[in-house]
Amino acid sequence: MASPKRHRKYSSNFNATARQAAQMLLLKPTMWRLLKVHVHGQSNLDGLEGACVVFANHASHLDTPLIYGALPRRISKFLAAGAAQDYWYDKWWKSGPMTLFFNGYPIDRGRDDGSRKQNVRGLSGALLDEGIPLLIFPEGSRSRTGAMGPFKHGVASLCISRKVPAVPVALIGAHAAWPSSQSGLPKGRPTVHVVIGRPMTPRPGEIAHEFSERMRRQVLELHDTTARAYGARTLDEYARAVALEAARRTELSGADRTDSHTQEDR
After folding, report:
1. Which of 74, 54, 44, 84 is nearest to 159 (CA)?
2. Which residue positions in the chain have pLDDT lower than 70?
3. Which of 81, 96, 166, 214 could make an SS bond with 135 (beta carbons 3.0 to 4.6 A apart)?
4. C-beta separation of 56 from 155 below 8 A
């Protein structure tokens, strides 16, 4: 576990003031100008104080700034965003904005690619122990298809071991606004919705994979209920499209093998 001295930057009032100024003067106005943002459920966080883990579906690079802009300032002030060490912390020009805007800290995704510069295991738990709320995407990486991937159990395990609530957030329209295949910024001010659910706490005796699945279902419900209400694409629809595409590729592959055997028989 890292030493407390290393954590002071995450709870520094000076850093938090500078970060909130950057968010309110630059980041949020930019996001809200690029997108038509609708925030739902802020009242669900009334009375929430101290350490917690905010979690959401991960659809695009818009997700983190949207969540920071949507959360009440008392929560976003010290909120520390976990970011993949192998992606965000391999270059200063990527790690710098993570620190400036999001109080970012590195998360080890377990990829042994030589990119690790420091041992960051246990940092999430240590920050929670010091009362710092976290933002973590349990899928581990952005969706390339719009469908929500399975949740890794680490977030649920953190909440159980540290006895902190998990705050579900659903992001609707973020993938359509800026899919991973699109190189440029969103155009035409596409509509996105940020839906904040009620904080969740582990039930007595609930283990990590059970709580993680309940968390995943909650994000799915928040997302699809809102998507249907506003005529947006649901996560179920994205998942069906992925399944249909996989079936089509399997069918084409089978047809190719059949053609190959037919030609050989000739």
Report:
1. 54
2. 1-6, 110-119, 254-266
3. 81
4. no
**Which residue in this structure is represented by tokens 């973590």?**
136
In this prediction, residue 89 carries a pLDDT of 79
CATH number of 13-234: 3.40.1130.10
3-state secondary structure 133-161: CEEECCCCCCCCCCCCCCCCCHHHHHHHH
Q: What are the residue boundaries of the structural domains of the chain, listed by start? A: 13-234
Q: Give 174's Cβ-side CA count (13 Å radius).
A: 30
Q: What is the pLDDT of residues 93-135, one digit of tens each?
A: 788 888 889 999 998 876 555 544 555 778 999 999 999 999 9
Helical H runs in the chain? 4-11, 13-22, 28-34, 63-70, 73-76, 85-88, 92-102, 123-129, 154-162, 174-177, 208-230, 235-265
d(C-alpha 19, C-alpha 120), whole Å: 23
Q: What is the pTM of this model?
A: 0.88
